[in-house]
Design goal:
By secondary structure, the chain is mainly β. The chain has one helix spanning about 1-20, and strands at about 25-35, 40-45, 50-60, 65-75, 80-85, 90-105, 105-115, 120-130, 135-140, 150-160, 160-170, 175-185. Strands 1-2-3-4-5-6-7-8-9-10-11-12 form a twelve-stranded antiparallel barrel. The longest helix is centred in the N-terminal third of the chain and has 18 residues, at about 1-20.
């Protein structure tokens, strides 16, 4: 159960990062699973003219952490980058990312190919929209073996610098997990 909770938190935090990336340069999100366990995701985003660096630290219910740093460059919606990630066991890996994103009238799309350290590729397709403080995001990851994972988020801004909502993760095995999130933008 603990491993599945960790996977839920990891996938939920990734989905949320795509959903709420634009508004804040720094944020802290608390994710609560259906069993009441909580994790905290701290994210900072630094933007340059055609670049972006995203640093993320996730603290799991057992106190262990995972970290990642992604550095991306791009222009006219096309981007590429590298993500260096260290998991809860202290194991590190580097991933290459190639993608295309667009934003039009509050609706965005982000389609990326992620190549892992062993050359395996996954695709990540995200669509979302925000209107009057209400946001939704649907993210599908297709792994190299053809299995998929879906992360669906629905939320709203609840005040200056805060947001709250729900997360549903459908895993590769078809298992569905739900939770809630609260975000504070700094």
């Amino acid at each position: 159960m603990q491993v599945q909770t960790r996977r839920f938190i990891t996938m939920a935090s990734l989905g949320l990062s795509l959903m709420i990336a634009a508004p804040g340069l720094a944020r802290e999100t608390t994710i609560t699973g259906s069993g009441g366990k909580q994790a905290t995701v701290q994210t900072t985003v630094n933007r340059g003219q055609n670049s972006r660096t995203v640093n993320r630290t996730t603290t799991y219910p057992n106190g262990k952490t995972s970290t990642s740093t992604g550095t991306f460059t791009g222009n006219n919606g096309t981007y590429s980058g590298t993500v260096n990630r260290t998991n809860r066991q202290g194991e590190s890996a580097t991933y290459q990312v190639q993608g295309q994103r667009s934003l039009n009238n509050g609706t965005y799309q982000n389609n990326a190919t992620v190549t892992g350290p062993q050359g395996r590729q996954s695709t990540v397709n995200t669509t979302g929209s925000c209107s009057q403080g209400q946001c939704t995001s649907d993210r599908t990851t297709t792994f190299s073996n053809g299995k998929t994972r879906q992360v669906n988020t629905t939320g709203q801004r609840t005040g200056q610098g805060t947001a709250t909502g729900t997360v549903t993760v459908t895993g590769r095995n078809g298992r569905i997990r739900t939770g809630t999130y609260n975000t504070n933008f700094k």
